[in-house]
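Appendix B, record 7
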Amino acid sequence: MIEERKRLGSKVTLDGNHLTIPEVAAVSGDRSRKVALSEDALEETAANQAYLQRKLDEGLVVYGINTGFGGSAEVRSWKLEEVQKSLIRHVNAGMGRTFPSHLTRAAMVTRANCLVKAYSGVRPDVPRVLTELINNDITPCVPLRGSVSASGDLMPLGYIAAAMIGRSDLAVEHSGSRMTCPEALKKAGVQPLTLGPKEGLAIINADSFAAGVSAPTLYDANLILLLTQVCTGLSVEALRGRTESFHPVIHNCLPHVGQQEIAQNMLNILKDSKLAITELDMHLPDKYGVLKQDRYSLRSSPQWLGCVAETLNDACRRITIELNSANDNPIIDHRTNTIAHGANFQGETMSIAMDQTRQVLGVCGKLLLAQFQEVVNAKLNFGLPPNLSGCDINLDFGFKGCDTAMASYMSELDHFVNPMSNHVLSAETHNQSVNSMALVSARLTAEAVEIVQMMVANLLCLTAQAVDLRHLRNLALHEIDSLREQYPTVRELLRDTEWYDLMYQGEERLAALDKEARTGDMERIAAEQAVYERLVGLYKTACSGKLDTDKHMGKGSCRIMCTLYYV
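Structure tokens (predicted):
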């Protein structure tokens, strides 16, 4: 996905069949990204509309064109333009907070693509106006709540339709400023649309808002999975963990595709690492009092994250289908002389996909929390300072605040993990007797993404510090071993004092030793001074950024950390 997004040009061309999640994410997140329509698709759209017009001229009664809507479909009218206007008017009933403009853009590009698939009976002018709004950075202020996502996302898409027809009192954002829709259209030179038969219905009677919100959310969810693996690799290095946990023999014995993928990724991330234990334990001397294997947050990470990879892969498949579907009603097919009434707007597939995505985001969150709490805790992190403090532990409490925040994030994430798809009520005179709630599920997933992004950021900061401290500890212990042999009088000091206290409090101790030198044991004082000078010098090297930890990290973890550092 990342590579595909990198390869995108400045323009995304819509043809109804090939819109991708990275393309929606790119248009959503970059206001300068332009959208074009395929000429072949526009020709097919024109043919589709001409077919519908012929059928109407023959006197055919078609739902939503010369009838009422939903549970009111028993009424008839041949004032076709007024029928479409009344549809948009009655669904513009929202209130409260509005969607961020980037998510509305995602819905707009998705709906434009579905319309040029040429099963909706609209003129080419309809997707053209929609893309003109996108290209001129005009997005309607769409209420966050009010959709049941069947029949489609009527209310939110209704506000997009209102922008297309230039509703006089509609608020929009244009190039970062809020104004009325007619004012924005005039500034941009966009001619408002006059709705023809079915065109209002074709714009709103679909689940494209849910699909549009789902696409960039899924893109971000996949990035979270990638970064969770990076965090796991860094945690392995920080905790002197073992690559044995990712050995192919283990994962060939339980050959889930996702599990095998994660295990191989971990081996790639930790390749050539000098901080992780890369030998099988069977080839190493046994040490009493040392754990024989890593704790679960490291050792079982492929089994834990494998289901996340498989779930996200399937969610991407489902959402990609929705991005390139004819999902309004009725379906108009000039190719087979068919007008069929159905329910492709019922976004249950997306609701389930987003529920499952949210669930596996919770799975990532649990692992991130477990790793954070293991790395930050001096009782579990194999000799690193309490709270991963980088200076005097009596005055600096390092990541203690982040530790508390992580628990808060996870508690809130646990709440969001609850499914939305089973919270269904009958709506609209019991015509919409079952409905998917797909857009609400997508919204909740977007919020879950934000929470896990914060957890990832916390753990990346923590493990970056931890890996430096692990390398610093290795260097310090090497120095201490040398000093113990060189100065026998300080063996007790070196045995009873933590390596980080020797560093962090070194300058203070040197000042005290200077005073003691006037009356104290000169041999002992000179030895202690040598200890503190050597370790303070090492500490200053670390503080100056010249520790060269990257040369000891795995190729993958080093590459990621260097990228994040320069970003």
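Remarks on this record: Residues 438-486 form the longest helix (49 residues). The chain has two domains: 2-206, 215-326+356-472.
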